[in-house]
Amino acid sequence: MAKKKKSIREFVLQYFKRHPLEELKHGPVVDWVRKQYLKEHKEPPRDPWREIRKLHQEGTLIKVKKGIYKYDPDYVHEVELWEFSAETKKAILERDGYHCVVCGRGIEDGVELVVDHIKPKDKGGTNDISNGETLCMEHNLMKKNYSQTEAGKKYFIKIYKKAVKLNDKKMIKFCKCVFDCYDYHKINGHIKRPNGKIKAKGNK
Ligand SMILES: [Zn+2]
């Protein structure tokens, strides 16, 4: 029975897995992979280095610095560069109707759309369709640069709930006012406020 020949990728992984947590320079890795591959395939491998970069992009290898990578079995899923697959991206865009979920604008309005991780990758967010949302560049930047506004909204939700428990009308009113402000500026609409809008009184 013919043994299934190993791919470049499998050889690269094999080498890294044999040296867990070691900071490996690409030279010796590539040399080893080239040797093993040549033995099995009777021809040299094509660009093993490319495969290392790809494994890094997928979140399997950690880049220590230029040309040096390591494999950490516990860290495999936490690398920032881990992205949605092309298919998942398409599915998310289609689900959202090719419109920003915050402002509702689409390509026809002249905005560029990106697929964003609702829960960031470095906080354990997955690459599932359910963790993706379509954003325009403006709202994507806003999310990236002002992620504290999310924490702020969540914090006010906590305060609001406490105020409801204590029947603290003044604080309840204050929190609603804060949520209205979030709504008015279309910020963090993906975090549901715990109450409906209140009618603004006085000056419109
Ligand atoms: Zn938008």
Please, could you describe this protein's structure?
This protein is 45% helix and 9% strand. The protein has 3 domains: 8-70, Arc Repressor Mutant, subunit A; 86-145, no CATH class; 147-204. The protein is built from 7 helices and 5 strands, in the order H-E-H-H-E-E-H-E-E-H-H-H. It has helices spanning 8-18, 26-41, 48-57, 86-95, 137-145, 148-166, 169-184, and strands at 24-25, 62-65, 68-70, 113-117, 132-136. It is mainly α and 204 residues long. The strands form 2 sheets. Strands 1-3-2 form a 3-stranded antiparallel sheet. Strands 4-5 form a two-stranded antiparallel sheet. The radius of gyration is 25 Å and the shape is elongated. Helix 1 (8-18) packs across helix 3. The protein binds zinc ion. Zinc ion is lined by residues 100, 102-103, 105, 135-136, 138-139.
Features of this protein?
two-stranded antiparallel sheet; 204 residues; single chain; 3-stranded antiparallel beta sheet; 3 domains; Arc Repressor Mutant, subunit A; mainly alpha
- Sheet-strand content, in percent, reads 5-15%
With strands numbered from the N-terminus, the spatial order across the biggest sheet is 1-3-2
- Would you identify the CATH architecture of the largest domain? Orthogonal Bundle
Q: What is CATH's topology name of the largest domain?
A: Arc Repressor Mutant, subunit A
